[in-house]
């Protein structure tokens, strides 16, 4: 199944191996769903040497020297304040030319200064429009990138980070410990529930809920080193929308009337994106779509978008010069009355 060897992050000197069974499967599905946009995305996704990381600065241990250095190296800030909701406290830098910053080591007692991420991961966080004092649930939270980003935007009254997988839960705890000062830890709760049970456990408790769902993670699936595991994932893939819909139904229960819900995935798959949201809109009478097309317009200098046929859903698709994504984001609101 291995058809080519590509050099991964230079600092780690790992060889990433492209998995042909996954690539063939994606070729069939995505050329049908996305047309020409797929061939541009494909070129990026199969070439890890083109992949980039954005640098999210930690406001709790602000790296002034690094910020100067990033300016010097030609990095610019993401969105540049053009979005209707864009908290000044969130600073994320990215470069138009490929450049790599090493990730920081975890050291007990030391807060990290920055977090490396796919810049498109910030779209679901910003779509949530978190304000100081709000109660927010991150239903599928590990390894914690979006929880960290949420805390760069505002100081919630309560942040509940949930993760079902116990190994990944440890990773989540470590991320929170590395980025958040102790006094803020008092407003954060970490739990290990099946997200599908959260709605019954905590009905109507939250102002905002983020469902960053388990999905076919296109970038990582393309480089599965175990081809048997990859084939198994593909055959199980059609079960993912059922889980995603159940997680969303639970999130809706956990949301207070009038609250906002954001759903995101890092796959291009229509079945896990638009179809999941259409099913929710068709079957839940208390849920309304929220138009986020303005968000796509204001950040088109950094991101490429593929049409979704939905006003409430955006699909970031990688292309040359705008390598971020895949990322699907949908924004929904719970109505005040059923
Ligand atoms: C896309 S990842 C989340 C990434 C995370 N939001 C971040 O930004 O770092 C999806 C997560 O959902 C978790 N998950 C899978 N099934 C779940 C369930 N039933 N309830 C809660 N979490 C689940 C997975 O273990 C995985 O860590």
From TrEMBL:
Read off the PROSITE patterns from this record: SAM_MT_RSMB_NOP
> Boundaries of each SAM-dependent MTase RsmB/NOP-type domain copy?
45-335
User: Which one of the record's GO molecular function terms can you name?
Assistant: RNA binding
Gene Ontology biological-process annotations: regulation of mitochondrial translation; rRNA methylation; tRNA wobble base cytosine methylation
Q: Which domain of life is it from?
A: Eukaryota
**Record flagged with keyword Transferase:** yes
Record's keyword annotation contains Transferase:
yes
User: Which UniProt keywords are listed?
Assistant: Methyltransferase, Mitochondrion, RNA-binding, S-adenosyl-L-methionine, Transferase
CDD domains linked to this entry: AdoMet_MTases
User: What is the annotated localization of this protein?
Assistant: Mitochondrion
| GO CC annotation | mitochondrial large ribosomal subunit
Residues annotated as catalytic: 266 (nucleophile)
> Which InterPro entries does the entry mention?
MeTrfase_RsmB-F_NOP2_cat, MeTrfase_RsmB-F_NOP2_dom, RCMT, SAM-dependent_MTases_sf
List ligand-binding residues for S-adenosyl-L-methionine. Answer: 140-146, 163, 194, 212
Q: Which residues form a coiled coil?
A: none
Give the family, as the similarity comment puts it.
Answer: Belongs to the class I-like SAM-binding methyltransferase superfamily. RsmB/NOP family.
Q: What is this protein called?
A: NOP2/Sun RNA methyltransferase 3
Gene for this protein? NSUN3
């Amino acid at each position: 199944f291995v058809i080519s060897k590509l050099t991964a992050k230079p600092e780690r000197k790992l060889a990433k191996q492209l998995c042909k069974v996954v690539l063939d499967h994606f070729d069939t599905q995505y050329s049908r769903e996305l047309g020409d946009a797929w061939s541009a995305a494909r070129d990026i996704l199969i070439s890890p040497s083109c992949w980039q990381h954005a640098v999210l600065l930690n406001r709790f241990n602000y790296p002034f020297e690094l910020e100067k250095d990033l300016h010097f190296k030609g990095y610019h800030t993401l969105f540049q304040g053009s979005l209707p909701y864009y908290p000044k406290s969130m600073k994320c830098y990215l470069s138009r030319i490929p450049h790599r910053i090493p990730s920081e080591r975890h050291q007990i007692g030391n807060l990290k200064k920055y977090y490396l991420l796919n810049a498109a991961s910030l779209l679901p966080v910003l779509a949530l429009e978190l304000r100081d004092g709000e109660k927010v649930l991150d239903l599928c939270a590990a390894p914690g990138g979006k929880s960290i980003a949420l805390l760069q935007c505002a100081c919630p009254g309560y942040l509940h980070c949930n993760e079902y997988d116990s190994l990944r839960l440890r990773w989540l705890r470590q991320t929170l410990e590395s980025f958040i000062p102790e006094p803020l830890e008092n407003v954060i709760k970490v739990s290990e529930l099946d997200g599908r049970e959260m709605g019954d456990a905590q009905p109507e408790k939250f102002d905002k809920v983020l469902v960053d769902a388990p999905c076919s993670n296109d970038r990582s699936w393309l480089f599965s080193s175990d081809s048997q595991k990859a084939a198994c994932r593909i055959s199980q893939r059609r079960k993912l929308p059922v889980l995603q819909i159940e997680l969303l139904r639970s999130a809706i229960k956990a949301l207070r009337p009038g609250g906002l819900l954001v759903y995101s995935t890092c796959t291009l798959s229509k079945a896990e994106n638009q179809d999941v949201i259409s099913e929710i809109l068709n079957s839940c009478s208390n849920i309304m779509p929220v138009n986020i097309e303005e968000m796509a317009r204001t950040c088109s200098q950094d991101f490429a978008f593929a049409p979704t046929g939905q006003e409430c859903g955006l699909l970031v698709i990688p292309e040359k010069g705008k390598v971020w994504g895949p990322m699907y984001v949908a924004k929904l609101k719970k109505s005040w009355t059923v």
